[in-house]
Amino acid sequence: MDFRFLKGERVESIDKGPDGIFTIVSAKNRHRARAIVLAIGKSGSPRKLDVKGEDLPKVMYRLIEADHYVHKRILVVGGGDSAVEAAMGLAHQVGNTVTLSYRQAAFGRIKERNARRLEEFVRKGKLKVIFNSNPVEFISDAVMLETKGSIQKTA
Predict the structure, then answer these.
(1) How many other C-beta atoms lie within 10 A of the C-beta of residue 81?
(2) CA distance readout (Å), 83 to 1, 37, 100
(3) Which tens digits make up the pLDDT trace of 76-113?
(4) Three-state SS for 116?
(5) What pLDDT, on a 0 to 100 scale, did the predictor assign at position 66?
């Protein structure tokens, strides 16, 4: 059995051909394989925000099933593909109001297809994005965000 490791290579796409063989395209190479094992990191140790109130029961560090959340006001924090995909999945659920907070001025590391979908969600009013923002405190009914030097309460 031949095992090849793509450690340190960013996978750009995985496609299964009509012959049942996968083509994996990375930033450095193109690989073909009969089977693929994805080791995408450890989910048991989330990176905490280290802000007041993050121990409240309403603060989650993993999203298992987006469809468990309906008719909720939700703030997703982050600017990577996981955060963007979680925000879009939650925004798709009935009655949810979803805001995505990101500390930078623009997304710089998300997949192009996520960028296009996110743009569509924002354009249709399904999702709000607040750039240059950081949560500074979680309270029972809201989150306090620092944005451009001032603190605002998000519902």
Answers:
(1) 15
(2) 36, 23, 8
(3) 999 999 999 999 999 999 999 999 999 999 998 899 99
(4) helix
(5) 84
